[in-house]
Amino acid sequence: MRPPLSLLTYLRVPKPTVDVVKPHVNTPTPATEKVADNENKVVLAGQETTQHISQSTGHRDPDVFVLGDNIRFVQDEGGTLRSPVSVDPAKVTVTNEAGENVTDWFTIKVEDVTDPNGAHVRQVTAEAKPEHLKDLGVNKRYTMNVTQKAELDGVADQEIDYGFSIVNDQYVFTEDHTYTEYIPAPKKTVKKTMLSVEVDGKTVLPGQELNYELTLDVAKFKDSQGTLDSLGSEDDYDENYYTPTGVFEAKTVDGTDVTDWFTFENRDGKATITAKPEKLGDITNLGQNIQWTLFGHVNKDAKRVGSRTLLLKSRMGIVRTRTRSLTRFQT
Q1: 3-38: pLDDT as tens digits
Q2: Lower CB density within 10 Å: C or N end of the chain?
Q3: How far apart are CA 259 and CA 271, in angstroms?
């Protein structure tokens, strides 16, 4: 039996509500990566290094996809800014994850510009062509390979560069990479008699034996980016005061005779030794300096009293450095 209405209790039940949080997906651009072949190795003037800058396309077809490398300019003592390296655009390539060459999909540029921080840089970029943006694919990784060549300017530069990428509106940088260039420093001493007494800066007599000992600064080549392309040493002398015997010898610092690693030429006041091509690998891996000796004597008719400057030009690869040796000739 239904109870009287007066006995019923009425309950007010609020309308059910549901709080719905809209999902938010955050997909930041992955870090741009940069690595170099033979990282932390010695870089010689004229030597090439290869850098690799990599980035992924993201989770949709990109509107813009750029891989880049910025090489900071260095400042000379006079305040002049210059790039420590050169880059041949023809040697810049782009590869996909499988290592396949897809450079044709990109426009390659090498320009001297100002970076976002106001620094002068040599900028290398590979920008995907509009007609190939869809060919890149989703979440696919691409690498720009840049070959840099240290300038032959006679200055041991500290080169600083960093990679970057632009994916749509996201500009992502790598950390700075630093490379210190090494320039060989040849040495020259003057010695006489069989006792090999050093006479640099001293007086010698006409007809007296006089030998020039030159040091090829090659010990650090063992830690360089690669095998030498060429190696030689030139000694310019004044034919009015000095005559070589036509004999030379080359030895390592520990005394090992390596004369047969070189060819010798003496012509028009210049004595030159050149490493044989098949011995360049041995010299690169030697880890020791090499001393070569030019044997000769003071001309008997050397009449001038005073000093003569004898100039050594050392060519290592195509690096030229100079050292001077001073000897007095007396009648």
Answers
A1: 554 544 545 556 666 565 555 555 556 789 999 887
A2: N
A3: 15
